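S2.1 Query sequence (GAF domain-containing protein)
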Amino acid sequence: MPRFQAGFELAEALTVASQQLHETPTPHNTLRTAVRLAVHIMPGAEHVGISEIERGSKFRTLAWTDDVVRSAEARHGGREPHGHWDQLWHSPVARITDSEADEGWDVLSALGLRSALSLRLRADRRRLTVLTAYARKPGAFDEDATRIGRLFTTHVSIALESATVREQLTEAMHTRDLIGQATGILMERQDIDAAAAFESLVRASQRENVKLRDLAREIVSAHNST
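Output structure tokens follow.
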């Protein structure tokens, strides 16, 4: 694993990683790229996963390097997040030094995983996004590894936010086009102007309890199939 003895080597590695992260087209691709890069950048990391945790102990693994991660995060049948993740609501970092020495980490020790380092990627009042690195060596993640991990996750967070905004803008543009097409179809069918057609579309959306874009998609699809 790289130890980055010289500062410029770490800077270069993070620059390359940042470029690769920002080239990803969707948030899902960003997460998949992040776990792959983390194994090479974070000292001591052998397996990496990214999970989303909701208040109320609901969680799901979003990206992973291998099946070891899926097994490691399937505590209690995959219904509850790891206890040390609770710290991440208040702190950006949580560590497991030795799963065999600490109580409650039978799942990790059974997989031969002795250390874990969890770093907060995103957080709000209801949800956390967490990157966790695992290692077979106890005490694998020291302060240097943690600092490098935090630098890396900062780049991941920025790239993830950028990819999310791009996806939202793309969806907004697609939705606008759909609504415009649906409005045009209603104008032609009902011989009304654009304002009346849009108002009719909104009323139908509210009456049928269907999102405006979904109703517009149905109208456009039905029109194109005739």
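Strands lie at 47-54, 58-64, 93-96, 115-123, 127-135. The mean pLDDT is 88.
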